[in-house]
Amino acid sequence: MSPLVESFVRHFGEMGSRWGINRTVGQMYAYIVLADEPVNADELAAELRVSRSNVSMGLKELQSWNLVRLKHIPGDRKDYFVAPEDVWEIASTLINERRKREIDPTLTVMRELLMDTPSSAADRHAQNRIKEMYQLIEMLTQWSAEMQKLSPKQISRMLKLGAGVSKLLG
């Protein structure tokens, strides 16, 4: 692994723990994303100096997040893995998966709590706060879904426009 790749892989592993994934899974993903060829589990274990079983579990996690795809190489019985080439596709996948795992369950609980009849003034106050949070999360979720319908070029233009707007308003 070159110093450039190693530096990025190490950093991504450290950041992974802050994003809710373990360090090794973060390193594995960074290595796969940067690889110019499909990567197999043995290569990951050797390059990252981790056990083969740890790599197997990490690959299953990355597949469950739809961040890597299995790729077969003709004449080779090993399983190889690739990440999407398009960084916008990676971002979209992460947004969708985090929504399914984190936002949707939270909205479900909030909806259920909003359907309860408050039994005190404190519960009415709490329910009003839950309603405000629910409406905000719902609005952001709908906005995110609309943004994901746009092409990468359109999103890029919007992001640049947003930077210009903040300068005007700032």
From TrEMBL:
SUPFAM superfamilies: Winged helix' DNA-binding domain
Pfam families with a match to the protein in the record: MarR_2 (PF12802)
Signal peptide: none
Species this chain originates from: Gilvimarinus algae
The protein's name in its UniProt record: HTH-type transcriptional regulator
Domain of life per record: Bacteria
Family of this protein: Belongs to the GbsR family.
Domain HTH marR-type: 32-78
Gene3D superfamilies, alphabetized: Winged helix-like DNA-binding domain superfamily/Winged helix DNA-binding domain
Record keywords: DNA-binding, Transcription, Transcription regulation
